[in-house]
């Protein structure tokens, strides 16, 4: 029983690492870098957020709200187009990745 639990925990950690690696790749592929800068540290415009080191759950919620239209402020219009090509799982991976990047 203890071995099964240890193996399950190891698999979860490995999946988390893979998710973070996928998040880094997705951050580039989904053009996040264009507005938020390398690793989310240096946004293109002063009013765009620095996303490096932000809370993963918060970022995921913001991206999902932009995608669904629940969040629709001035800056969300540009994000809405990008979110249309990003799945919910990819949003989660990007948020997890960014949460681990030091600001």
Overview in brief:
With 103 residues, the protein is mainly α. The chain is built from five helices and no strands.
Beta content comes to under 5%
Low-pLDDT regions: 5-18
Helix content: 55-70%
Identify the CATH homologous superfamily: Cytochrome c-like domain
Largest sheet descriptor: none
Q: What is the CATH level 1 assignment?
A: Mainly Alpha
Count structural domains: 1
**Distance between the terminal alpha carbons, to the nearest Å?**
41 Å
- Average pLDDT taken over every residue: 85
Shape: globular
Element-by-element helix/strand order: HHHHH
Care to describe what's here?
The protein is an all-alpha fold and 103 residues long. The protein has a single domain, classed as Cytochrome Bc1 Complex, Chain D, domain 2. Helices cover 64% and strands 0% of the residues.
Walk me through the topology.
Elements: H1 2-29, H2 32-36, H3 56-68, H4 76-83, H5 88-99
């Amino acid at each position: 029983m203890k071995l099964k639990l240890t193996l399950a925990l190891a698999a979860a950690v490995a999946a988390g690492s893979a998710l973070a690696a996928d998040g880094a790749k997705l951050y580039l592929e989904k053009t996040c870098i264009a507005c938020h800068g390398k690793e989310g540290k240096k946004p293109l415009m002063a009013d765009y957020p620095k996303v490096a080191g932000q809370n993963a759950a918060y970022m995921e919620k913001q991206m999902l709200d932009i995608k669904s239209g629940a969040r629709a402020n001035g800056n969300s219009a540009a994000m809405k187009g990008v979110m249309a090509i990003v799945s919910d799982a990819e949003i989660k991976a990007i948020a997890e990745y960014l949460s681990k990047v030091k600001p």
